[in-house]
Amino acid sequence: MDSLTHIALGACMGDAFAGKQLGKRAMFLGAVAQSVPDIDFIASFWNNTSENLLAHRGFTHSLLFALMITPLLAMLAERWHRPHDISLKKWIIFFGAQALIHLLIDGMNVYGVGWFEPFSHHRVSYNWIFVADPFYSIWLGIAFAVLLILKRNHPRRSWWIKFGVGMSTIYLLYCGLNKIKIDNDVRDVLNKQQISYNSYFTTPTPLNNWLWYVVAANDSGYNIGYRSLFDKERKIDFHFVPRNDSLLKSVSDHEDLQKLVRFSKGYYAIQQWNDTLVFNDIRFGQIIGWKDPTARFAFYYFLQHPEDNSLIVQRGRFAGWNMEAFMALLKRIKGN
Questions:
Q1: Are 243 and 221 in contact (CB under 8 A)?
Q2: Fewest CB atoms within 10 Å of the CB: 18, 92, 185, 194?
Q3: For residue 185, what are the contacts with CB-CB under 8 A and spacing of at least 6?
């Protein structure tokens, strides 16, 4: 989830936990606590791009890190905020809840989270929600803004906390139900259209939870399409993208490549752009693919020119967006 959403959620939790004792300092404390796992950005100052992909949401998003940092933060907070009537046990519960909720929410989008680092490099991602979804964040943002304005002892503070956290949680559960329905629809469509696959995944398209990006993988490549919750037809217009493993022979010993394959969970396609080999992590979708089914992928990495790969996850996410592309997204959400 995006950083602003984590901050708003943490601030609401902080106010609920200790607003009466600490005033608005509790909001600041909660925002910091909710943001602690994201200190992994520091690694980007010395890691190269491929290393940073695995470091982000890696060890600092693990259960082990949560267990290590929770008592430390609890002891620091208990000492710094004296006098108060909050026991060390309550501080531990508060910081533990902040860390675990951060890990849980980040696991809901496609990037993945290293819950089990360093014992396992498996990255958890269950693809319920896009990394930035305004329909999730808006309720927390409203509550956060109101809490900043209201006085410390205002009787409506608790109501606004319940509003922000409650509405965002309801929306998150709604996203989970959408995921179940989409997955059921996709399995049914794949069988009806007689498309063979070894595995598949679905993930929401940008900024919404109604249009989903669908990938069905087999040994040679991927059938890619889109499915709206409002589609009436039991079909998906797939197009095929070859994996092109054979193109990797000249770079098979490159360390960057091994890291990228691990990061992509095997969902990658190789393309040749002029004289350059390009690694596409297809999990992140296509650049306005709902408008142009043959569009490039949002995540691409130049295997032979690593110096040109800064911000590779972000560079294609909103490339080509204009009013026409946005209206095409709305039209496709409405369904076929």
A1: yes
A2: 194
A3: 227, 231, 234
